[in-house]
Amino acid sequence: MPRGRTPLDTLHMQLQIVGKVRLALSPFEPQWANVPLYLSSRGLTTTPMAYAGSIFQIDVDLIDHKVVIETTRGRLAESR
Asked: Rounded to whole angstroms, how far apart are CA atoms 15 and 55?
């Protein structure tokens, strides 16, 4: 691990990216109510969002330490 980088730094960067995706794809609501992440049984989730004719959600799995993107078309992508 590079000096100065901690797992918390990595999690923070991942959550910033997920939040930016949520911000870009959600209609604006007062007091940024469109961008929160919600608790799930394994970590945090965006809840479903629409993009390019499909629906997807991003889950940050804090148990298995990965980010999972799942679509209604059955596609699954995950990072470790």
From this structure: 20
DSSP 1-52: --TT--HHHHHHHHHHHHHHHHHHHS---GGGTTS--EE-SSEEE---EEET
- The CA angle 52-64-59, to the nearest 5 degrees, is 25
- What's the chain's length in residues? 80
Identity of the residue numbered 42: R
Residues 6 or more apart whose Cβ sits within 8 Å of residue 61: 42, 43, 67, 68
Return the DSSP state at 65: T
d(CA 72, CA 16): 24
| Portion of the chain with pLDDT greater than 90, in percent | 68
Q: What is the mean pLDDT of the chain?
A: 91
pTM over the 0.90 mark = no
